[in-house]
Design goal:
Elements: H1 3-8, E1 12-19, H2 22-31, H3 34-40, E2 46-52, E3 55-61, H4 62-78, H5 80-104, H6 111-134, H7 140-157, H8 160-179, H9 191-200, H10 206-214, E4 216-221, E5 224-229, H11 231-244, E6 252-255, E7 258-265, E8 280-283, H12 291-296, E9 299-302, H13 310-318, E10 322-324, H14 329-332, E11 338-342, E12 347-350
Protein backbone atom coordinates (compact mmCIF):
# COMPACT_ATOMS: atom_id res chain seq x y z
CA UNK A 1 0.00 0.00 0.00
CA UNK A 2 1.30 3.46 -0.95
CA UNK A 3 0.44 5.68 2.01
CA UNK A 4 1.25 8.93 0.21
CA UNK A 5 -0.95 7.91 -2.72
CA UNK A 6 -3.82 7.21 -0.30
CA UNK A 7 -3.36 10.63 1.32
CA UNK A 8 -3.52 12.23 -2.13
CA UNK A 9 -6.95 10.70 -2.78
CA UNK A 10 -8.60 12.92 -0.15
CA UNK A 11 -9.79 16.51 -0.50
CA UNK A 12 -8.28 17.81 2.74
CA UNK A 13 -9.27 20.89 4.72
CA UNK A 14 -7.33 22.35 7.63
CA UNK A 15 -9.29 22.25 10.89
CA UNK A 16 -6.74 23.50 13.40
CA UNK A 17 -3.08 24.16 13.96
CA UNK A 18 -0.90 24.99 16.92
CA UNK A 19 1.52 23.80 19.57
CA UNK A 20 0.65 20.17 20.35
CA UNK A 21 2.60 17.05 21.15
CA UNK A 22 3.03 14.14 18.79
CA UNK A 23 1.74 12.03 21.70
CA UNK A 24 -1.66 13.76 21.65
CA UNK A 25 -1.98 13.35 17.88
CA UNK A 26 -1.30 9.64 18.17
CA UNK A 27 -4.23 9.31 20.57
CA UNK A 28 -6.57 11.63 18.71
CA UNK A 29 -6.13 9.96 15.33
CA UNK A 30 -7.52 6.71 16.68
CA UNK A 31 -10.15 8.45 18.80
CA UNK A 32 -11.53 10.38 15.84
CA UNK A 33 -12.51 7.03 14.38
CA UNK A 34 -13.11 4.63 17.26
CA UNK A 35 -14.51 6.91 19.98
CA UNK A 36 -16.60 9.14 17.70
CA UNK A 37 -18.11 6.09 16.04
CA UNK A 38 -18.97 4.52 19.39
CA UNK A 39 -20.33 7.65 21.09
CA UNK A 40 -21.81 9.65 18.21
CA UNK A 41 -22.43 7.16 15.41
CA UNK A 42 -20.43 9.39 13.04
CA UNK A 43 -16.67 9.35 12.70
CA UNK A 44 -13.74 10.53 10.61
CA UNK A 45 -12.34 7.64 8.61
CA UNK A 46 -9.25 9.64 7.62
CA UNK A 47 -7.24 12.14 9.65
CA UNK A 48 -3.87 13.76 9.02
CA UNK A 49 -1.46 15.38 11.49
CA UNK A 50 1.63 17.22 10.22
CA UNK A 51 4.10 17.73 13.07
CA UNK A 52 7.14 20.03 12.92
CA UNK A 53 9.18 20.74 16.03
CA UNK A 54 6.15 20.73 18.32
CA UNK A 55 3.75 22.58 16.00
CA UNK A 56 0.94 20.53 14.47
CA UNK A 57 -1.44 21.08 11.56
CA UNK A 58 -4.57 18.90 11.57
CA UNK A 59 -6.55 18.08 8.42
CA UNK A 60 -9.64 16.04 7.63
CA UNK A 61 -11.44 15.31 4.34
CA UNK A 62 -14.01 17.98 3.50
CA UNK A 63 -16.66 15.37 2.68
CA UNK A 64 -16.24 13.66 6.07
CA UNK A 65 -16.41 16.96 7.93
CA UNK A 66 -19.64 17.90 6.17
CA UNK A 67 -21.14 14.44 6.67
CA UNK A 68 -20.32 14.60 10.38
CA UNK A 69 -21.93 18.02 10.74
CA UNK A 70 -25.12 16.96 8.96
CA UNK A 71 -25.37 13.82 11.10
CA UNK A 72 -25.09 15.84 14.32
CA UNK A 73 -27.75 18.32 13.17
CA UNK A 74 -30.07 15.43 12.35
CA UNK A 75 -29.58 14.11 15.87
CA UNK A 76 -30.49 17.47 17.41
CA UNK A 77 -33.58 17.77 15.23
CA UNK A 78 -34.69 14.24 16.10
CA UNK A 79 -34.06 14.39 19.86
CA UNK A 80 -32.91 17.83 21.12
CA UNK A 81 -32.90 16.86 24.80
CA UNK A 82 -30.69 13.82 24.28
CA UNK A 83 -28.31 15.74 22.04
CA UNK A 84 -27.98 18.70 24.37
CA UNK A 85 -27.39 16.39 27.32
CA UNK A 86 -24.00 15.79 25.69
CA UNK A 87 -23.07 19.37 26.57
CA UNK A 88 -23.71 18.70 30.26
CA UNK A 89 -21.74 15.45 30.02
CA UNK A 90 -18.88 17.39 28.40
CA UNK A 91 -18.74 19.71 31.42
CA UNK A 92 -18.85 16.78 33.85
CA UNK A 93 -16.05 15.02 32.02
CA UNK A 94 -14.05 18.25 31.97
CA UNK A 95 -14.20 18.39 35.77
CA UNK A 96 -13.26 14.72 36.07
CA UNK A 97 -10.32 15.02 33.69
CA UNK A 98 -9.07 18.20 35.38
CA UNK A 99 -9.19 16.47 38.75
CA UNK A 100 -7.12 13.56 37.48
CA UNK A 101 -4.49 15.89 36.01
CA UNK A 102 -4.23 17.86 39.26
CA UNK A 103 -3.91 14.65 41.25
CA UNK A 104 -1.16 13.21 39.10
CA UNK A 105 0.73 16.52 38.96
CA UNK A 106 4.27 16.61 37.60
CA UNK A 107 4.90 12.90 37.97
CA UNK A 108 5.28 9.84 35.80
CA UNK A 109 2.04 8.01 36.57
CA UNK A 110 1.78 4.29 37.13
CA UNK A 111 0.22 2.35 34.29
CA UNK A 112 -2.93 1.88 36.41
CA UNK A 113 -3.23 5.63 37.04
CA UNK A 114 -2.57 6.32 33.40
CA UNK A 115 -5.20 3.88 32.14
CA UNK A 116 -7.77 5.65 34.30
CA UNK A 117 -6.73 8.99 32.81
CA UNK A 118 -6.77 7.54 29.29
CA UNK A 119 -10.35 6.32 29.64
CA UNK A 120 -11.55 9.80 30.58
CA UNK A 121 -9.31 11.47 27.99
CA UNK A 122 -10.62 9.24 25.18
CA UNK A 123 -14.24 9.91 26.16
CA UNK A 124 -13.70 13.66 25.92
CA UNK A 125 -12.98 13.94 22.19
CA UNK A 126 -16.41 12.87 20.86
CA UNK A 127 -18.14 15.21 23.33
CA UNK A 128 -15.81 18.06 22.33
CA UNK A 129 -16.36 17.45 18.62
CA UNK A 130 -20.13 17.35 19.03
CA UNK A 131 -19.99 20.69 20.84
CA UNK A 132 -17.52 22.46 18.58
CA UNK A 133 -18.34 21.24 15.07
CA UNK A 134 -22.13 20.95 15.16
CA UNK A 135 -22.79 24.69 15.39
CA UNK A 136 -21.10 25.27 12.02
CA UNK A 137 -23.94 23.32 10.39
CA UNK A 138 -27.01 24.36 12.38
CA UNK A 139 -29.72 26.16 10.37
CA UNK A 140 -30.20 29.79 11.41
CA UNK A 141 -33.28 29.21 13.58
CA UNK A 142 -31.64 26.42 15.57
CA UNK A 143 -28.36 28.33 15.78
CA UNK A 144 -30.03 31.35 17.35
CA UNK A 145 -31.89 29.13 19.81
CA UNK A 146 -29.02 26.85 20.83
CA UNK A 147 -25.85 28.92 20.44
CA UNK A 148 -25.89 30.14 24.09
CA UNK A 149 -25.94 26.53 25.32
CA UNK A 150 -23.10 25.50 23.03
CA UNK A 151 -21.06 28.60 23.83
CA UNK A 152 -21.45 28.06 27.58
CA UNK A 153 -20.19 24.47 27.26
CA UNK A 154 -17.35 25.63 25.04
CA UNK A 155 -16.15 28.29 27.48
CA UNK A 156 -16.49 25.89 30.42
CA UNK A 157 -14.38 23.18 28.78
CA UNK A 158 -11.98 25.44 26.84
CA UNK A 159 -9.01 24.87 29.14
CA UNK A 160 -9.00 21.09 29.01
CA UNK A 161 -6.80 20.55 25.97
CA UNK A 162 -4.28 23.05 27.27
CA UNK A 163 -4.32 21.10 30.53
CA UNK A 164 -3.84 17.73 28.85
CA UNK A 165 -1.01 19.13 26.72
CA UNK A 166 0.70 20.37 29.87
CA UNK A 167 0.16 16.91 31.38
CA UNK A 168 1.81 15.13 28.45
CA UNK A 169 4.67 17.62 28.38
CA UNK A 170 5.25 17.20 32.11
CA UNK A 171 5.45 13.41 31.68
CA UNK A 172 7.85 13.92 28.77
CA UNK A 173 10.03 16.23 30.86
CA UNK A 174 10.24 13.67 33.67
CA UNK A 175 11.11 10.91 31.21
CA UNK A 176 13.77 13.12 29.60
CA UNK A 177 15.27 13.92 32.99
CA UNK A 178 15.60 10.24 33.82
CA UNK A 179 16.93 9.28 30.39
CA UNK A 180 19.24 12.31 30.04
CA UNK A 181 17.79 13.44 26.69
CA UNK A 182 16.13 16.60 25.40
CA UNK A 183 12.65 17.19 26.81
CA UNK A 184 11.34 17.55 23.26
CA UNK A 185 12.07 13.95 22.33
CA UNK A 186 9.63 12.08 24.63
CA UNK A 187 6.83 14.35 23.33
CA UNK A 188 7.23 12.37 20.09
CA UNK A 189 6.22 8.99 21.46
CA UNK A 190 3.22 7.20 20.00
CA UNK A 191 0.31 6.13 22.18
CA UNK A 192 1.62 2.56 22.35
CA UNK A 193 5.22 3.64 23.04
CA UNK A 194 4.24 5.88 25.95
CA UNK A 195 2.19 3.14 27.55
CA UNK A 196 5.01 0.65 26.95
CA UNK A 197 7.43 3.01 28.72
CA UNK A 198 5.13 3.20 31.73
CA UNK A 199 5.18 -0.60 31.92
CA UNK A 200 8.76 -1.43 30.96
CA UNK A 201 10.82 1.78 30.98
CA UNK A 202 11.91 1.26 27.36
CA UNK A 203 12.10 4.01 24.73
CA UNK A 204 12.61 4.02 20.95
CA UNK A 205 16.11 4.94 19.77
CA UNK A 206 17.04 8.59 20.19
CA UNK A 207 17.53 9.13 16.45
CA UNK A 208 13.99 7.83 15.80
CA UNK A 209 12.53 10.44 18.14
CA UNK A 210 14.75 13.19 16.74
CA UNK A 211 13.47 12.54 13.21
CA UNK A 212 9.87 12.66 14.42
CA UNK A 213 10.45 15.92 16.26
CA UNK A 214 11.99 17.63 13.22
CA UNK A 215 9.14 16.68 10.89
CA UNK A 216 6.70 13.82 10.82
CA UNK A 217 3.21 12.90 9.72
CA UNK A 218 0.62 10.73 11.44
CA UNK A 219 -2.02 9.52 8.99
CA UNK A 220 -4.98 7.44 10.14
CA UNK A 221 -7.28 5.26 8.05
CA UNK A 222 -10.21 3.87 10.05
CA UNK A 223 -8.18 4.15 13.23
CA UNK A 224 -5.05 2.50 11.83
CA UNK A 225 -1.92 4.60 12.30
CA UNK A 226 0.69 5.28 9.60
CA UNK A 227 3.85 7.25 10.34
CA UNK A 228 5.95 9.21 7.84
CA UNK A 229 9.22 11.08 8.45
CA UNK A 230 11.98 12.95 6.60
CA UNK A 231 11.54 13.38 2.82
CA UNK A 232 8.08 11.80 2.80
CA UNK A 233 6.79 14.74 4.86
CA UNK A 234 7.98 17.25 2.29
CA UNK A 235 6.41 15.19 -0.49
CA UNK A 236 3.03 15.21 1.25
CA UNK A 237 3.23 18.94 1.99
CA UNK A 238 4.05 19.74 -1.63
CA UNK A 239 1.13 17.61 -2.73
CA UNK A 240 -1.23 19.34 -0.29
CA UNK A 241 -0.26 22.80 -1.56
CA UNK A 242 -2.09 22.07 -4.81
CA UNK A 243 -5.36 21.37 -2.98
CA UNK A 244 -5.23 23.68 0.04
CA UNK A 245 -4.02 26.95 -1.46
CA UNK A 246 -6.64 29.04 -3.23
CA UNK A 247 -6.67 32.47 -4.84
CA UNK A 248 -6.63 35.48 -2.55
CA UNK A 249 -6.52 35.64 1.21
CA UNK A 250 -9.98 35.63 2.67
CA UNK A 251 -11.69 34.07 5.65
CA UNK A 252 -14.84 34.19 7.73
CA UNK A 253 -15.51 37.32 9.82
CA UNK A 254 -15.74 36.42 13.51
CA UNK A 255 -15.94 40.02 14.78
CA UNK A 256 -16.30 42.96 12.41
CA UNK A 257 -13.93 45.89 12.25
CA UNK A 258 -10.85 47.14 10.45
CA UNK A 259 -7.20 47.31 11.46
CA UNK A 260 -3.79 48.03 10.02
CA UNK A 261 -0.59 46.75 11.55
CA UNK A 262 2.51 44.56 11.44
CA UNK A 263 1.89 40.83 11.08
CA UNK A 264 3.30 38.59 13.78
CA UNK A 265 3.08 34.93 12.82
CA UNK A 266 2.93 32.98 16.09
CA UNK A 267 2.71 29.20 15.77
CA UNK A 268 3.92 28.21 19.23
CA UNK A 269 2.86 30.51 22.10
CA UNK A 270 5.37 28.86 24.42
CA UNK A 271 8.38 30.11 22.46
CA UNK A 272 9.71 33.66 22.84
CA UNK A 273 8.42 35.97 20.12
CA UNK A 274 8.40 39.69 19.34
CA UNK A 275 4.89 41.08 19.70
CA UNK A 276 4.11 44.76 20.19
CA UNK A 277 0.81 46.41 21.03
CA UNK A 278 -1.04 47.07 17.77
CA UNK A 279 0.52 44.14 15.89
CA UNK A 280 -1.77 41.71 14.09
CA UNK A 281 -1.77 38.15 15.39
CA UNK A 282 -1.56 35.54 12.61
CA UNK A 283 -1.73 31.93 13.73
CA UNK A 284 -3.17 28.50 13.02
CA UNK A 285 -5.69 28.89 15.81
CA UNK A 286 -5.70 30.37 19.31
CA UNK A 287 -5.98 28.75 22.73
CA UNK A 288 -5.85 30.31 26.22
CA UNK A 289 -2.04 30.42 25.99
CA UNK A 290 -2.39 33.03 23.23
CA UNK A 291 -4.18 35.54 25.48
CA UNK A 292 -1.09 37.76 26.09
CA UNK A 293 -0.78 38.20 22.30
CA UNK A 294 -4.52 38.65 21.77
CA UNK A 295 -4.72 41.40 24.38
CA UNK A 296 -2.00 43.40 22.57
CA UNK A 297 -3.24 42.65 19.05
CA UNK A 298 -5.05 45.12 16.82
CA UNK A 299 -6.68 42.17 15.04
CA UNK A 300 -6.59 38.37 14.83
CA UNK A 301 -6.23 36.18 11.72
CA UNK A 302 -6.32 32.36 11.86
CA UNK A 303 -6.00 29.48 9.42
CA UNK A 304 -8.75 27.44 11.04
CA UNK A 305 -11.83 27.90 13.15
CA UNK A 306 -15.61 27.94 13.29
CA UNK A 307 -18.39 29.71 15.16
CA UNK A 308 -17.20 28.43 18.53
CA UNK A 309 -13.45 28.51 18.03
CA UNK A 310 -11.44 30.19 20.77
CA UNK A 311 -10.40 33.09 18.51
CA UNK A 312 -14.01 33.92 17.63
CA UNK A 313 -15.16 33.87 21.25
CA UNK A 314 -12.29 35.94 22.64
CA UNK A 315 -12.49 38.42 19.73
CA UNK A 316 -16.15 39.05 20.47
CA UNK A 317 -15.42 39.50 24.16
CA UNK A 318 -12.52 41.91 23.57
CA UNK A 319 -14.10 43.54 20.50
CA UNK A 320 -11.08 42.82 18.30
CA UNK A 321 -11.45 42.54 14.50
CA UNK A 322 -11.07 38.86 13.73
CA UNK A 323 -11.00 36.71 10.59
CA UNK A 324 -10.98 32.93 10.96
CA UNK A 325 -10.78 29.98 8.58
CA UNK A 326 -8.42 31.50 5.99
CA UNK A 327 -6.88 28.02 5.47
CA UNK A 328 -3.41 29.35 4.62
CA UNK A 329 -2.73 32.72 6.30
CA UNK A 330 0.32 31.36 8.15
CA UNK A 331 1.79 30.14 4.86
CA UNK A 332 0.99 33.27 2.84
CA UNK A 333 1.72 36.02 5.37
CA UNK A 334 5.30 36.57 6.46
CA UNK A 335 6.28 37.82 9.90
CA UNK A 336 6.75 41.59 9.58
CA UNK A 337 4.37 42.12 6.65
CA UNK A 338 2.18 45.22 6.87
CA UNK A 339 -1.46 44.13 6.79
CA UNK A 340 -4.85 45.72 6.31
CA UNK A 341 -7.68 43.78 7.89
CA UNK A 342 -11.30 44.17 6.81
CA UNK A 343 -13.18 41.91 9.17
CA UNK A 344 -16.53 42.91 7.71
CA UNK A 345 -15.74 41.32 4.34
CA UNK A 346 -13.18 38.81 5.67
CA UNK A 347 -10.41 40.14 3.44
CA UNK A 348 -6.74 40.43 4.44
CA UNK A 349 -4.46 42.61 2.32
CA UNK A 350 -0.67 42.47 2.39
CA UNK A 351 0.53 46.06 1.82
Amino acid sequence: MNIISNINKQNWIKRWAGSYTFISCSYWGRQYYVELKRELGAQFDHTLFIHKRGVVTFLIPKSEFESFGRRMVEEIQHDPAKALARLDTLKTNTDKLSGMIRKLGNTIPTITEYQEFKKCFSYHLPLHNFMKKTVDFLPDDLLQELLPRFKEARVYSEHIYSDTEHFFRSIAAKIAEGEHISADLPTCLTEDELESYLMTGGLPDKDVLEKRFEQSILYFEEGKQHLLVEDDVGQVEKMLETTLVHDGLKGTPAFKGTARGIARVILDPHRTAVFNRGDILVTGMTRPEFLPFVEKAAAIVTDAGGVLCHAAIIARELKKPCIIGTEHATRTIKDGNLLEIDAASGIIRII
